[in-house]
């Protein structure tokens, strides 16, 4: 029997993980279906747009700027080993737009937005505010989840676009200020090298990551345990799940878009 | 008006309700008493559909609502209810008047903002709050004031049935008295059917027409409040006197 214990544990764990995946999938499907069915809560949607989009701009901008700058330095140093310093603008552009822009913005949104959504909804659940919503003839999925998920689906791709641009600008500042690139040719190289498909893939990733971040926040918030500990647990799990799912989705999307 | 017929509910291995039978006629004020964790809240939540019973029936106005789904019918059903939650359950992202007028600002009962605000202020006045609290946030209010706002929200849309979940818990005796009187007055003047959960005996005497004692997942005793003291039921007697000795185990 004792030999079977690890196997049983593994089995239980697998079942638990699969059950959670199923629940999350159902939750996500419900959340999205409520986006299209009235009543719509426009004010909640605007608040979510402001919270997720506008208020995330500083952190997204700073993250992208520093990453773009560091990327330029690394590529210059690495490229120098085989006299390919000149490719800095192109690699910064492609690196930011295809990978780092969407991933870093996605992770920042997971840290900032997923955590705050999860903590807010979990606290509402713990203090019976979710029950109160129901007794006031308001569907919690419609009032809380749908506006946040919709706002994230719309605004995170925009944040990714802005992050891409600021990241490239970070590379430009370092490239022209420190590495001696000519500003005009830096911009020309960047623009000529990027293709429309790079930009579109970046925005699609942003959309997917935004959806994941908001859905995870709502799911773990709605399913929070009791008390302060329940809220803490819900918040932690939501950020973990969002971050891992964003990275996994990034891998899948990259292999769909770019592997030939 | 409300009938519970053999309602069972378990959470995992824990059996909370083991066959609750209860009838509340229209316009009556029923108070459910019982120790903490005996399933009083679950009983009320199963009427509202916040919890689905494993077995048994919930009947409101002759209609079986045990498995009422979501949708327009459910909204209409819920519109007949008002509920005061234990901790108030006010939405802390909304101001006091927006909390009170929540139902009037969205959904089927939606009306112009100015009108909703006017009704909210009138309801706030009804529960003894001045109009200047209308634009504060719930976190800026004391516990007693939050309870009053919760009460105002529960009655804002003139419900036929009102639930009060431990209305006096956490309040000082004077504020408890004020809330008890308010509940009694409001129920009488609205002609509403009321169900209150409490373990505060002062509350029971102030609010109840009828009392039901819930213990061990079933209704141990039910009857008019006047007969409560001479019930001869050992469970009820122990509860009323607050004695550690008796059939109810003090350590649960």
TrEMBL record, chain A:
Keywords: Membrane, Transmembrane, Transmembrane helix. The keyword Transmembrane helix applies. It comes from Cognatishimia coralii. InterPro entries: Permease_MalE. It holds the Pfam family MlaE. This is ABC transporter permease. The chain crosses the membrane at residues 12-32, 52-73, 149-172, 199-220, 241-258. The lineage of its organism: Bacteria, Pseudomonadati, Pseudomonadota, Alphaproteobacteria, Rhodobacterales.
UniProtKB/TrEMBL annotation, chain B:
Coiled coil: none annotated. SMART domains: AAA. The keyword Transport applies. Keywords: ATP-binding, Nucleotide-binding, Transport. SUPFAM superfamilies: P-loop containing nucleoside triphosphate hydrolases. Gene3D superfamilies: P-loop containing nucleotide triphosphate hydrolases. The keyword Glycoprotein does not apply. InterPro entries: AAA+_ATPase, ABC_transporter-like_ATP-bd, ABC_transporter-like_CS, P-loop_NTPase. GO terms for molecular function: ATP binding. Residues 2-241 form the ABC transporter domain. It comes from the Bacteria. This is ATP-binding cassette domain-containing protein. The lineage of its organism: Bacteria, Pseudomonadati, Pseudomonadota, Alphaproteobacteria, Rhodobacterales.
């Amino acid at each position: 029997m004792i030999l079977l214990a690890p196997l049983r544990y593994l089995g239980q764990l697998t079942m638990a993980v699969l059950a959670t995946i199923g629940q999350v999938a159902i939750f996500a499907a419900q959340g999205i279906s409520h986006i299209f069915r009235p009543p719509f809560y426009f004010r909640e949607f605007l608040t979510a747009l402001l919270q997720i989009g506008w208020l995330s701009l500083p952190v997204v901008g700073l993250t992208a700027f520093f990453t773009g700058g560091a990327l330029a330095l690394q590529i210059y140093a690495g490229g120098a080993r085989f006299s390919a310093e000149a490719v800095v603008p192109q690699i910064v552009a492609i690196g930011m737009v295809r990978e780092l822009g969407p991933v870093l913005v996605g992770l920042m949104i997971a840290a900032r937005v997923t955590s705050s959504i999860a903590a807010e909804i979990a606290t509402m659940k713990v203090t019976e505010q979710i029950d109160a919503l129901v007794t006031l003839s308001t569907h919690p999925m419609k009032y809380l989840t749908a506006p946040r998920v919709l706002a994230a689906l719309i605004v995170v791709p925009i944040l990714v676009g802005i992050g891409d641009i600021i990241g490239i600008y970070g590379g430009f500042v370092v490239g022209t200020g420190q590495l001696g690139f000519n500003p005009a040719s830096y911009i020309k190289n960047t623009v000529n090298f990027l293709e429309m498909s790079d930009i579109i893939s970046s925005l699609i990733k942003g959309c997917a990551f935004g959806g994941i971040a908001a859905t995870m926040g709502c799911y773990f918030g709605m399913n929070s345990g009791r008390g302060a500990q329940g809220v803490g647990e819900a918040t932690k799990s939501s950020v973990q799940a969002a971050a891992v799912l964003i990275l996994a989705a990034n891998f899948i999307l990259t292999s769909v878009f770019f592997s030939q | 008006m409300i009938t519970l017929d053999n309602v069972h509910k378990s959470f995992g291995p824990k059996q909370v309700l083991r066959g609750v039978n209860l009838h509340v006629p229209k316009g009556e004020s029923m108070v459910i008493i019982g120790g903490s964790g005996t399933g009083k809240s679950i009983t009320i939540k199963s009427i509202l559909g916040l919890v689905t019973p494993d077995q048994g029936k919930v009947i409101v106005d002759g209609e079986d609502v045990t498995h009422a789904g979501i949708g327009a019918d459910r909204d209409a059903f819920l519109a007949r209810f008002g509920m005061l939650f234990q901790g108030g359950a006010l939405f802390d992202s909304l101001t006091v008047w927006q909390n009170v007028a929540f139902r009037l600002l969205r959904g089927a009962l939606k009306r112009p903002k100015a009108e909703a605000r006017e009704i909210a202020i009138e309801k706030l006045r009804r529960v003894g709050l001045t109009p200047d609290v209308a634009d504060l946030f719930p976190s800026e209010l004391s516990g007693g004031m939050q309870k009053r706002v919760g009460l105002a929200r529960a009655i804002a849309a003139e419900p036929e049935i009102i639930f009060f979940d431990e209305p006096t818990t956490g309040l000082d005796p004077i504020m408890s008295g004020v809330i008890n009187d308010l509940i009694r007055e409001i129920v009488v003047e609205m002609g509403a059917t009321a169900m209150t959960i409490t373990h505060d005996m002062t509350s029971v005497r102030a609010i109840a027409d009828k009392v039901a004692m819930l213990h061990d997942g079933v209704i141990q005793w039910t009857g008019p409040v006047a007969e409560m003291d001479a019930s001869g039921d050992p469970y009820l007697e122990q509860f009323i006197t607050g004695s550690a000795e008796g059939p109810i185990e003090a350590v649960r």
